[in-house]
Amino acid sequence: MKKQIILALALLVASFSFSQKDELKDAEKAIKNGNFADAKSAIKSAEPLIGTADDRTKAKFYFLKGQALYANGNASNEDINTAIESFDKVVEIEKKDGKEKYTDDVNETKMVMLNAFLTKANTALEKSDFSASSLGFEKAYRMSPKDTLYLYYAASTAINAQDYKTSLKYYEELRDLGFTGEEMEYTAVDKESGEVETFSSKSLRDISVRAGSHITPKDKKSESKAGEIIKNIALIYVNSGENEKGLAAMKEAREANPDDLGLLLSEANVQLQLGNKDEFKKLIEIATKKDPENPELQYNLGVVAAESGDSESAKKYYKKAIALDPEYADAYNNMAVLILQGEQDIVEKMNKLGTSSADNKKYDELKEQRAVLYQNAIPYLETTLKYRPKNLEAAKTLMNIYSAIGETAKFKDMKAKVEAIQTEN
């Protein structure tokens, strides 16, 4: 009697096994025919017994499950996540088993999925659909976890979509991964346009230089994005009213990276946003002492000072940045902006004057002050365009100044330049 029971159990297990294999065959056939609803149904029927299957059957099951759920890209967000997990399980099982029957197919499918996600993300970005773009980049990262830059893009586009909860989640994940985004940049100046161009590799850059189309080759490491990430985490907390969490995140990051100037500036920015001006000034002074010969630091200090309303300090920092790097176009441009900020006050005073002799005299004095202001701004705008020939705003501003001061020939030349830039854009 005991042997008969054992035999019955064996027949039962065999029956389940055959049933499971039939379901997998049905799923495979449905996938080939593009009938993903039937494929998902067959997979669902086979799933309860997959835990007792051998590794080869498990690998096949998860491979088919991934294909069924992905449905050639026509799947829900939840199904896509599960499909990615299923494909990862195939690779994990076959790596452990040592028999890679489906791994190559999985990798090929994942590459197709990755390209599809990136295409959707970039297309959405071009249309300013930041939510869809963020989702696409996040999926691309899940497909290829080594490419952490995709997760950074997902976080950044989520910020643009004002989806701060999602952005915070991605930024915190990047922070925990130790992501910096640092990489070597290979640049050279295009002789024809005068623009700095970044190349994908040193060899491509060097070929262009040898060909004579580019000059002034430079190799430099891109700035770390770690400070930006921590700053954004802190700012999201602050904007959500969780100031203590924001400052705690910044403090933790600075304690781990005491020499990181980016983090120092980020904390200064957060303190400024919270209205803590004394703390802001203290941090700025520390930053200046740490690296007084860094043009980018001086420029950033100028930006922060300008945002705080301290125009004189901002000018000092921009001039220092220019002294350290005479080709710092953004510093020239921001100097012009600061100088021209004085125009509004002059114009308001001119508009309040009456028609008396005293008022007419005052009007002429103010007009002369505005002319001097224009003359002070012109060299900075001209130098900006020297190093950034396609800076439309700088070109427009310079065109209007030439018109206001009666420089007809220069006005016409700059007008033609503005029209040329607009046509190119």
Can you describe this structure in just a few lines?
With 425 residues, the protein is mainly α. Helix content is 75%, strand content 4%.
Q: Topology, please?
A:
Blueprint lengths: L1 H31 L3 H11 L8 H16 L6 H21 L5 H24 L3 H14 L4 H13 L3 H14 L6 E7 L5 E4 L2 H10 L2 E8 L4 H14 L3 H14 L4 H13 L3 H14 L4 H13 L3 H14 L4 H12 L1 H11 L4 H31 L4 H13 L3 H17 L1
Antiparallel strand pairs: 1-2, 1-3
Helix pairs in contact: 1-2, 1-3, 2-3, 3-4, 4-5, 5-6, 6-7, 7-8, 8-10, 10-11, 10-12, 11-12, 12-13, 14-15, 15-16, 16-18, 17-18, 18-19, 19-20
Oligomer: single chain
CATH class category label of the largest domain: Mainly Alpha
- CATH topology name of the largest domain, in short, is Serine Threonine Protein Phosphatase 5, Tetratricopeptide repeat
Distance between the termini: 88 Å
Task: Give the low-pLDDT segments.
Answer: 1-18
Q: Taking Cα atoms only, what radius of gyration do you get, to the nearest Å?
A: 31 Å
Beta-strand segment tally: 3
Count every helix, treating DSSP H or I runs of 4 or more residues as helices.
Answer: 20
Structural class: mainly alpha
CATH architecture verdict of the largest domain:
Alpha Horseshoe
Biggest sheet statistics? 3 strands, antiparallel
Helix content: over 70%
Large-scale geometry: elongated
**What is the helix/strand order?**
HHHHHHHHEEHEHHHHHHHHHHH
Strand content: under 5%
- Indicate how many domains the architecture comprises: 5
Q: Widest sheet: strand order?
A: 2-1-3
| Global mean pLDDT | 85
